[in-house]
Amino acid sequence: MPVTVHAQEAVLELDPAQTHIEFTLPEVLHPVHGTFKLKSGTIRFNLARGTAGGLVVVDAQSEETGNTSLDRKIHKEVLESGNYPEATFTPLEVVGRLDSEGESPLQLSGVFKLHGKEHDFNLATTVRRDGDQLIANTHLLIPYVDWGLKNPSTLFVRVGSQVEIYVKAVGRLTLPAAGK
Question: Model pTM?
Answer without folding.
Answer: 0.90
